[in-house]
Specification:
This protein has about 160 residues and is α+β, with helices and mostly antiparallel strands. Helices cover about 35% and strands about 30% of the residues.
Length: about 160
């Protein structure tokens, strides 16, 4: 993991920049709507409903975490797969994102559940707002990173780790 303190200063961004951070996926509609194509490239979309902390993942996120596709995954299980230092940084930025309605991008280390070992993942997250402007969820993209990938505040379209 590669956090830089203070985390919000180096990793968060205003919601109006969301499209920039998701550009590699958003600019190719055939990719953004194709679960298999995303998963093949080491990408997955995710959503967390804050009402009950339920998670919705596309196939690529299951593959990154080394979990069987399409099974319910409690948030506690997914969080437990983050390396301790990555988990702390992710939770701090998650809290900041909800409180201040800001997105964030963070490279984290996770331990794959299927004994696949440790891997690096780029986490792009943004709050979901209701009609009153209250944060009701978080959503974004997770990207599997090859060993030695440089840090970035965005998805990297040149990094596609074929699974």
């Amino acid at each position: 993991m590669r956090p830089i303190e203070p985390l919000p200063l180096h990793h968060s961004w205003p919601l109006y920049e969301l499209h920039e951070h998701l550009a590699p996926v958003a600019l190719d509609p055939s990719l953004a709507r194709n679960d298999a194509a995303l998963a093949e490239r080491g990408l997955g979309l995710w959503h967390c409903d804050l009402k009950d902390d339920s998670l919705t993942w596309t196939a690529g996120v299951y593959d990154i975490f080394g979990l069987e596709r399409h099974i319910p995954v409690p948030r506690a299980l997914s969080v437990s797969l983050y390396a301790p230092e990555s988990r702390l940084a992710m939770e701090r930025l998650r809290t900041y994102a909800i409180r201040h309605r800001r997105g964030f991008t963070l490279d984290v280390d996770i331990h794959q559940a299927d004994a696949g070992g440790q891997c690096a993942m780029r986490l792009v997250a943004a709050p979901v707002l209701d009609d009153l402007g209250d944060v009701v969820g978080l959503h974004g993209v997770k990207q599997l990173l090859p060993h030695g990938a440089l840090c970035s505040k965005r998805l990297d379209p040149t990094i596609f780790v074929m699974l």
